[in-house]
Amino acid sequence: MKTKTLSIILLIFCFYFTINAQDYTKLEKIQLKDKSDYEKNESLVLECSNYILNSQFDVLDKDLNHTQSQLFIIKWMGGTPDYSFDIDERIGKATRSSSSLLGVYLAASVKYVLENKSKVSDKNEVKFNSILVFLNYCEDVSKNAKLNTELKKMIKAKHDNTLREYLKL
Length: 169
What we know:
Blueprint: H1 2-20, H2 35-40, H3 42-53, H4 64-79, H5 89-95, H6 99-115, H7 123-139, H8 149-159, H9 163-167
Helix pairs in contact: 3-4, 3-6, 4-6, 5-6, 5-8, 6-7, 7-8
């Protein structure tokens, strides 16, 4: 009887995780040609951003789903006519040590822009708040992000309420 109960529990467990598993391997087949393609895929891009921002840092460059999510975000960011994104010198320094850090920053930027569409006209606000989302990810100990010197300085400035000055915004 115990074996039957254990088997049922294992079956339910496997079924649950199979249903909830993310599969982003088909993202590369999505065509983004005109404005309507970018608009209709905004929710998918946001889903990819949340997927990255909810993941541990050490799996970002080792898992195909994360890689495909990051590539789709980059593809969407590079072509969307509705939003513009830039990476300044500070973010360049903060993400230089890891392409995964850059992927997290891009996900943070997309998340902020798509969740705050009414505020995207002020580029400094977009940059500042994207960086806040990025830093929140980086300082979350459960994410295990590798912090370089620039990230540590940015996090300190955030906690000292001097981040805007540090970023020269």
